[in-house]
Amino acid sequence: MGTRLSDSEQYAHLWGTPELTALFDERARLQSWLDILVGLARAQAGLGMIPAAAAEQIATNARAESLDLEYVAEQTRLTSHSMLGLIRGLQQILPETAGQYVYVGATVQDVTDTWFALVMRDVGSAVWRDLRVIEESLLDLAQTHRDTLMAGRTHGQPGSPITFGFKVASWADEVRRHLDRLREGRPRWVVGQLAGAVGVLGFFEPRGLELRQAFCAELGVADPGISWLTSRDRIAEFAGVLTMIAGTLARIGNEVYELQRPEIGELREPTTPDTVGSITMPHKRNPEGSEHLDTLSRLIRANAAVLVEGMVVGHERDGRGWKAEWVALPEVCLLTGVALQVARRLTAGLVVDVEAMHAKA
């Protein structure tokens, strides 16, 4: 495993889910990049830009497990080029007749930005799925406790009575807006990138627009209409939606955290017989899940800020913004995935003490 605590066998479950970790795993990423190169070759072959036989040879051999990863890494360091190591690694396993047709006219961002479109598609689908489960749990809770009186609190102090169902309904309402945002944003985010050197597709004239359309169709993403090499709002918006989702989950977590305090005792997190609250204070039942939602939200906000910063870049290409995305966007996705899993468990098993609520209403 990696040198970061968040990658360790002991703690990795706190910072990523197996599903999303598999998506960002090095071999999975490389396979996605290879698939993009295959899509480009097939689109070019369809327009007669490269031989059809070469495109099929590229498609047949472009398998991450066939790559010599040490060679790919060595060539990346040797050339100081972000993609050349992979290109040479692929050419190494291709017949000589096909190697020269890999990556013809493309740039690093054509591959990595299109990969991000695929990432946003797949992560967005997982987020949607988990958020729908959370919404259902919240709606069930709201219905069950529509008449459960409790104290409404303002500025941290008891105010007028409300029902617990009312409180939970406000959480569900917020979750529904996030689902709407995911649905509305998907057509903006899941778009390919084929730009060439400065975005005008000059290398592919006079068939650049036709090629980009065919390339996007090969990969199942939409044509962007215009290159977005330095228009990073898509990445920032997607991360912004995940950040707001995490914020909502942290708000729910903070409510449970506060209302689980023994002097209030209105809610309790679900637990298992194996859970240990404290080694030195075994009487404690710590709100581990609730507070972790807050921790995750803080880290997501911090990484999302990097992605918003990436919107301010220069001219027709600027590596300062989009290379920072390579670190920040996966972090936002992985951390959000964990937050959703924690929130699913929390909302599905939340223990409500109706009598304690009535006593303080």
Walk me through what this model shows.
- The chain has 361 residues and is mainly alpha-helical.
- It is built from 13 helices and 4 strands.
- It folds into 2 domains: 14-104, Fumarase/aspartase (N-terminal domain) (Fumarase C, Chain B, domain 1); 107-196 and 225-360, Fumarase/aspartase (Central domain) (Fumarase C, Chain A, domain 2), CATH 1.20.200.
- Helix content is 62%, strand content 5%.
- The strands form 2 sheets. Strands 1-2 form a two-stranded antiparallel ribbon. A two-stranded antiparallel ribbon has the order 3-4.
- Strand 1 (149-154) and strand 2 form a beta hairpin.
- The chain is elongated and about 80 Å long.
- The N and C termini lie far apart (51 Å).
- The model has no long low-confidence stretch (mean pLDDT 95).
Describe, in short, the structure shown.
The protein is mainly α.
Tally of contiguous helical segments: 13
The topology string of helices and strands comes to HHHHHHHEEHHHEHHEH
Average pLDDT score: 95
Widest β-sheet, arrangement of strands: 1-2
Radius of gyration: 25 Å
- Which residue ranges are poorly predicted, with pLDDT under 50 across at least 5 consecutive positions? none
Might you state the CATH topology name of the largest domain?
A: Fumarase C, Chain A, domain 2
